[in-house]
Design brief:
The complex is a heterodimer of chains A (311) and B (342). Chain A has 12 helices and 2 strands, in the order H-H-H-H-E-H-E-H-H-H-H-H-H-H. By secondary structure, chain A is mostly helical. Chain A has a single domain, classed as ABC transporter involved in vitamin B12 uptake, BtuC (Orthogonal Bundle), CATH 1.10.3470. Chain B is of the alpha/beta class and 342 residues long. The chains are: A mainly alpha (311), B alpha/beta (342). Chains A and B meet through helix 1, helix 4, helix 9, helix 11 and helix 12 of A and strand 7, helix 7, helix 8 and helix 11 of B.
Chain lengths: 311, 342
């Protein structure tokens, strides 16, 4: 059993944990921004699917992963635009529209895949890695954490950029106010609808980018339903994180590590029901919820459409 | 007058009984429901192609409802039943709760999978199929061609059909060479479309030393294939993939070693015959090497000498010299994998 846990194997497990965590991180950061501004974005799974499909199409036809990430983000943003129009501008129910968008995008991307790729199942070459000098030489940890595509490091950097945005900038304060006291923001002369629209569109771009990463790097291909619930996990992470981007990062990594741990336990030949092993990531999230979620406070106006003058 | 009335009533009752029998045996159309598109070179495609072939042979119209996902298909089942389908083939283990419910509600025969105890005469038939004989041959093949003497089994779930193939593959490997390591990993409880998970887990199994991957996974098997294509074995050489149910040769980039290919047409043909004979839901259906409803795919990656040896083993299974018993239970498969893991 111990022979299995070679340096190469352990590195592969941790590398896989990071790869699994990045789409959740991007989706969770997006959802967090949306929720901060008072919009409960249940449609994030659909935005990820749009990003996965268009991201793959962009990368496949152009041969450039970066163009794929761009088209993926644009795809997520396009779906978010519908959400912004229906929920922020018109004020329709955010949960209903979110679910409808997810179901619609599941069908639409499956249909497009059917016509375009279902006979050829094209696959992308392995993503080029950006190797961080010195750090990548550390045994086990180095190859696992410091030999990834550049987008991975940018995603981690985004965590700190968003922390700065929320704490130190006027836009961050506006987003917070749009979720907590939109009327006060309105009185201060800031357009609540515009602020919420910016948040929802940013959410779409981040979710789309997460979907594009999942398809282009995580899987190297697109198939229908490829997100497999990653968007919903992003919502859970955002809720657990209590508005702090760094907690989304910890949660996503924890989930990724637990996924790899389930593989390690199986490879080790531990004879316990696979269902029990597979529960581990979800159990970890639930424990996090119990330990840290008790004091979680969601924005007061979350899920409530803003209408000027309404009481 | 009374005599005429009595004769008329008798004739009417007799006519009703006879007509009823005729209606019970009449099969005008059948419908098949699949969770993913019928273009996956696997479970969904084989099911749809087989239904079409069986329908054509029997002169029965075939309605295909594909890409339905793994959620609630009751509305689709009701719609197809109301359109007049004489048989609803619910081609996913996730449908084996809703389909029997609809069968009882609308009195329309349904065929489900992975529920051998769910038979109900005239209403519910089960076709829990197993390519275990082919998987055993695949195991023998893997053990013969593995350079590292380490092979992996990656599955996206543990339905009975796949359990029996996983177990048979492991038995084949050990029968060929007891020193070959076997690594078994499940992507998730029902990760059938989790291509990223398939790639991630397969990469880990390759990193543990495997240079042959036996993969069972619907959509997620494309992620396994991608991992095989983009990851080097420990010796720097190629990793090969053994697929199940379908034939992925048309999209292979030189990494497909073989596949345990199923032909489900005889099963559906038997179901249509049973419907006509009013024996539907009274027996189990099976596939095997004997009638070529299970075949091991020959690819250019298999040396001729090895293929010859595999064919000899195939004859031994057909003749009964080698017995391969299916193991459907997940716990039994895990126990087996633990016992063979090194």
């Amino acid at each position: 059993m111990t022979g299995l846990f070679s340096e190469v194997f352990l590195s592969a497990l941790l590398f896989g944990a990071v790869t699994a965590a990045i789409p959740l991180l991007l989706a969770g950061l997006g959802e967090q921004m949306s929720e901060k501004a008072g919009v409960l974005n249940i449609g994030i799974e659909g935005m990820m699917l749009a990003g996965a499909y268009l991201g793959f199409v962009g990368a496949f036809y152009s041969g450039s992963l970066w163009l794929g990430f761009l088209t993926g983000a644009a795809g997520g943003m396009a779906v978010a635009l519908i959400m912004a129009l229906l929920c922020v501008r018109i004020g329709l129910n955010q949960i209903v529209i979110g679910i409808a968008l997810t179901l619609g995008l599941e069908g639409l991307t499956a249909l497009l895949h059917h016509f375009q790729f279902s006979r050829s199942y094209p696959r992308l070459p392995a993503a080029d890695a950006t190797v961080i000098p010195l750090l990548s030489d550390i045994p086990v940890i180095g190859p696992a954490f410091f030999k990834h595509h550049l987008i991975v490091y940018l995603a981690v950097a985004l965590v700190f950029a968003m922390g700065y945005l929320y704490r130190r900038t006027q836009l961050g304060l506006n987003l917070q106010a749009a979720g907590d006291k939109p009327a006060a923001l309105d009185v201060a002369g800031i357009d609540v609808i515009r602020t919420r629209t910016i948040a929802v569109l940013s959410t779409g771009a981040l979710a789309g980018l997460g979907g594009a990463y999942l398809a282009n790097v995580g899987a190297g291909l697109f198939i229908p339903f490829i997100t497999n619930g990653a968007g919903f996990l992003g919502i859970v992470l955002a809720m657990l994180a209590r508005g702090r981007p760094v907690w989304v990062l910890f949660g996503a990594l924890l989930f990724g590590v637990c996924l790899s741990l389930t593989t390690a336990m199986q490879v080790a030949g531990i004879n316990i029901p696979t269902d029990v092993i597979q529960m581990l990531p979800f159990l970890a999230v639930m424990i996090m919820l119990v330990l840290f979620g008790r004091r979680a406070s969601l924005p007061a106006a979350l899920g409530i459409p803003y209408e000027r003058g309404a009481r | 007058m009374f005599k005429i009335l009595k004769s008329s009533v008798s004739a009417f009752v007799l006519c009703g009984v006879l007509m009823g029998g005729a209606f019970a045996g009449e099969v005008k159309s059948i419908a098949i429901l699949t969770p993913e598109e019928g273009t996956d070179y696997g479970w969904n495609q084989q099911g749809i192609d087989a239904a079409k072939a069986a329908g054509k042979a029997a002169g029965v119209e075939v309605v295909v409802a594909q890409g339905l996902g793994y959620g609630d298909v009751r509305p689709t089942l009701r719609e197809l039943a109301s359109d007049g389908a004489s048989l609803l083939i619910a081609h996913a283990s996730g449908y084996n709760t809703s389909a029997p419910e609809i069968a009882k509600e609308l009195k329309v025969p349904v065929a489900i999978v992975d529920t051998p105890n769910g038979l109900e005469k005239g209403l519910v038939a089960d076709y829990t199929l197993s390519g275990h004989e082919g998987a055993y041959l695949a195991g023998r093949l893997a053990a013969k061609v593995s350079r590292s003497k380490s092979v992996g089994i990656v599955v996206s779930g543990e339905p009975p059909s796949w359990n029996s193939q996983s177990a048979a593959f492991a038995q084949g490997v050990k029968a060929e060479n007891p020193d070959v390591k076997i690594t078994y990993a499940v992507i998730g409880p029902a990760a059938y479309s989790d291509a990223a998970g398939g790639k991630r887990v397969t990469e880990s199994v390759i990193a543990s030393g495997a240079d042959i991957i036996f993969g069972q996974g619907n959509g997620s098997s494309f992620g396994m294939l991608q991992a095989v294509e983009t990851t080097k074995a420990a010796d720097g050489g190629k990793v090969y993939f053994i697929d199940v149910i379908g034939d992925k040769s048309p999209i292979d980039k030189g990494f497909l070693l073989s596949s345990v290919v199923w032909n489900i047409e005889p099963v559906y043909a038997a179901m249509i015959a049973d419907l006509k004979a009013d024996t539907f839901g009274t027996k189990h259906y099976s596939i095997g090497l004997k009638d070529d409803s299970v075949q091991l795919l020959k690819t250019a990656a298999i040396p001729d000498k090895v293929w010859g040896e595999i064919q000899a083993l195939r004859e031994d299974i057909i003749s009964g010299k080698i017995k391969v018993e299916p193991v459907f239970d997940a716990a039994a498969v895990r126990a087996l994998m633990t016992s063979v893991a090194q």
